[in-house]
Write a structure and sequence with these properties.
Blueprint: E1 2-8, H1 14-28, E2 34-40, H2 52-60, H3 76-79, E3 82-85, H4 88-97, E4 105-107, H5 128-150
Parallel strand pairs: 1-2, 1-3, 3-4
Helix pairs in contact: 1-5, 2-5
Bound molecules: 4-nitrophenyl phosphate.
4-nitrophenyl phosphate (4NP) binds next to loops.
Length: 151
């Protein structure tokens, strides 16, 4: 079993989107050997569903985000094999928790061809196009990430 955790600040926009998209990629391969979760570096939105705008744009492309926000914990570094963060700020915060496990930490776009290593822009304070952009960026990189964990 490979275990993958997606992390952003609030765990209501970018990481639940990554979780929903990667669940769909793995399901399309009929692959039962990947466990997927998401968390936030903050607990600001703990217990909440993903942002309704993010859920709307995900549903338009056939994805469903059903998870509820939770804050990352030190235990997650033992539990998960891969921790994929949305941006540099998340990376800094995650490494400050579990610096000894830094080989597990990647950025969500590290596997992108066109946007390799870039931040996933935070859509929370912006308009609708920001949500679609997040989905498009994640679809490309996470398809490549699936190949990465399978080879
Ligand atoms: P996320 O977006 O990190 O992609 O879930 C945000 C959600 C909430 C806030 C910031 C970013 N906030 O400040 O409440």
């Amino acid at each position: 079993m490979k275990k993958v955790l997606f992390v952003c600040l609030g765990n209501i926009c970018r990481s639940p989107a990554a979780e929903a998209i990667f669940l769909s990629i793995v399901a399309a391969k009929n692959d039962q050997s990947v466990l997927i979760d998401s968390a936030g570096t903050s607990g600001f939105h703990s217990g909440q569903l993903a942002d309704s705008r993010m859920r709307k744009f995900l549903e338009l492309k056939g994805y469903q985000a059903t998870s509820r926000s939770r804050q990352i914990s030190l235990h997650d570094f033992d539990e998960f094999d891969y921790i994929l963060v949305a941006d540099e700020s998340n990376k800094k915060n995650v490494l400050s928790l579990g610096n000894a496990k830094k080989e597990k930490v990647f950025k969500m776009l590290d596997f992108s061809i066109d946007h390799k290593g870039e931040d996933v822009p935070d859509p929370y304070y912006g308009g609708d196009q920001g949500f679609s952009l997040v989905i498009n960026l994640l679809e490309e990189s996470l398809n490549n990430f699936y190949q990465f964990i399978k080879t």
